[in-house]
Write a structure and sequence with these properties.
heterodimer, A: 2 helices, B: 3-stranded antiparallel sheet, 10 helices
Chain lengths: 165, 373
């Protein structure tokens, strides 16, 4: 019976003690502890979020870097390609120019040669003409040493002339 | 689910308790008869030495006016505690040593041997009946243990709160890091889970306080040396006060939906409410049975555990009385079982603190739940 008959004394003391403990702990223990826990949890959460954000930023930064690198590469390639093109163009142009020049040179040489040839031919012709005239003169001289012969020839020529007309 | 489990457990522990009580009652009867026989033989010395297991166990788990530590032969070592009585318009304050371990009367007051008031201070009225003084607020063993554990709780948790201020923004240290997981467990898995995110903060201080009060006293109750060892949470008055607190908080914070659910439960056929208000009566009874069950569960669990351990220990003396050698032999088994029971009780200490707090939180949650029908 004593087991389920605790008496009023312990009940009164227990009520009093529990009330006092409740009030004291609520004010001086649970409140600061709960606030501290909440604050810490929030700060942890914030830190985690910040770390996540930093990681994300890093990722995008890396992506940016890659993009930049790729662009740079592309640009380099483009520049190189352009340069190659330009070189080829320059080479082609130079070749063309050279050809033209050569052609010009050849052409002028040809014309000069032609001219020279013509001049030479003219000279040869002249020479031949003079020589032939000289020869003819000499021949004529030789022929017309004899006066009779001259007269006969003139006669003949004249005759021919008349006949022809 | 946990409620069901708790009920099953409670039934189990009650039946265990009852069986032990009948056992002890039988034992007590047996010894009484023997005592009578011995009285005939006028052999008082032998009577003193006779070991009464039932009485011995009940003495150990009930309250007393002095804190008995040990007895060697006829010499009793105990811590005297103050007796505070208010009776017949007068205050009486004296130390319990005046009773000389229950053998003497002081100012007409003595410690009763009667069945109902056994172990309590009584006086004889004019008719010769034993009556309790008007008010007995003595600092008994349990009251002392309550005050001691409350002081310990205050000291521990204020120091923990201080260390939170000291280590602000840093990892917890020492006692703080030991208690923090438990505090967070009570907050997240008991309060938040049962009451809900919005309202749990109002009830958290109470839940934390009763959780640590019950846990501390359960554990202190397992330590057999002063100033621990009082059976505080196995005192039905203490568990009753805790349950009354839960009852008051539940009833005061009950909202419209809660009372509607009790008096006019939605979804229940009308003929269960009218003309005989069967459901309202059952629900109304539920308001009182819930805290009553809380009270009995904690009391019975802790008391049963103590009775089992004390039962194993008393086996040593029962067999020792038959023959000394048998007593030593049994002691090996008894101590082994007691150690096993102590570990089990350590588990029960945590489980019962958890169950009491969880059910309290569930009742608060029920009282504050918004209508969702």
């Amino acid at each position: 019976m004593a087991l389920i008959n605790p008496g009023l004394g312990p009940i009164i003391w227990m009520t009093l003690a529990l009330l006092i403990v409740l009030i004291i702990l609520k004010k001086y223990a649970w409140k600061p502890i709960m606030n501290a826990l909440k604050e810490r949890e929030e700060s942890i959460e914030d830190s985690l979020r910040a770390a996540d954000k930093a990681r994300e930023d890093m990722k995008s930064l890396k992506l940016d870097n890659e993009q930049l690198l790729r662009e740079a590469k592309d640009e380099r390639d483009a520049v190189l390609r352009e340069a190659r093109k330009i070189r080829e163009k320059i080479l082609d142009e130079a070749k063309e120019k050279a050809n033209e020049e050569a052609n010009n040179i050849v052409a002028s040489a040809k014309s000069r040669i032609e001219n020279e040839k013509k001049a030479a031919l003219v000279e040869i012709k002249n020479m031949i003409a003079t020589t032939s005239i000289e020869i003819a003169e000499k021949i004529l001289r030789e022929e017309f040493k004899d006066k009779k012969k001259q007269a006969s020839y003139i006669q003949e020529l004249l005759k021919d002339k008349r006949l022809k007309n | 689910m946990s409620d069901k489990l708790g009920v099953i457990k409670q039934i189990a522990t009650w039946s265990l308790l009852l069986s032990f009580m009948t056992f002890s009652a039988v034992a007590a009867n047996a010894t009484n008869e023997e005592q009578h026989d011995m009285d005939h033989e006028d052999n008082h010395a032998a009577e003193e030495e006779k070991f009464e297991a039932g009485k011995w166990i009940v003495e150990h788990i009930t309250d007393s006016y002095e804190w008995h530590i040990l007895s060697v032969g006829n010499m009793h070592v105990s811590v005297p505690l103050p007796v505070i009585l208010y009776d017949q318009g007068e205050w009486h304050v004296f130390m319990s040593t005046r009773f000389h371990h229950g053998n003497d009367a002081y100012k007409g007051y003595f410690i009763s041997d009667d069945n109902f008031n056994a172990g309590k201070i009584v006086r004889k009225d004019a008719q010769g009946h034993e009556v309790r003084p008007y008010l007995d607020i003595s600092i008994t063993k349990n009251v002392f243990a309550i005050l001691f554990s409350c002081l310990l709780l205050i000291l521990v948790f204020i120091s923990v709160a201080k260390s939170y201020k000291k280590t602000e923004g840093h990892a917890p240290k020492g006692l703080q890091s030991f208690l923090e997981p438990i505090i967070i467990f009570v907050r997240d898995d008991i309060a938040k889970a049962s009451i809900g995110e919005k309202k749990y903060e109002k009830y958290l201080p109470f839940l934390l306080t009763i959780f640590f009060f019950i846990l501390l006293n359960n554990i202190l109750g397992l330590i057999p040396i002063f100033p621990a060892g009082a059976n505080v949470t196995g005192n039905i008055g203490v568990t009753g006060v805790l349950a009354v607190f839960v009852f008051i908080i539940t009833t005061v914070s009950g909202n419209k939906a809660y009372w509607l659910h009790i008096f006019n439960a939605p979804g229940v056929p009308w003929w269960l409410k009218f003309p005989i208000p069967l459901m309202p009566v059952v629900e109304l009874m539920g308001i009182f049975t819930k805290p009553f069950v809380l009270m009995v569960r904690l009391f019975a669990n802790i008391t049963a555990g103590h009775i089992i351990i004390l039962g194993f220990i008393s086996l040593i003396f029962i067999f020792g009385e038959m023959s000394t050698g048998l007593g030593y032999g049994v002691s090996i088994v008894s101590v082994g079982f007691s150690i096993f029971m102590n570990f089990l009780e350590l588990l029960v200490a945590f489980i019962q603190a958890y169950v009491f707090t969880l059910l309290s939180a569930l009742y608060f949650g029920m009282a504050t739940e918004e209508a969702h029908h």
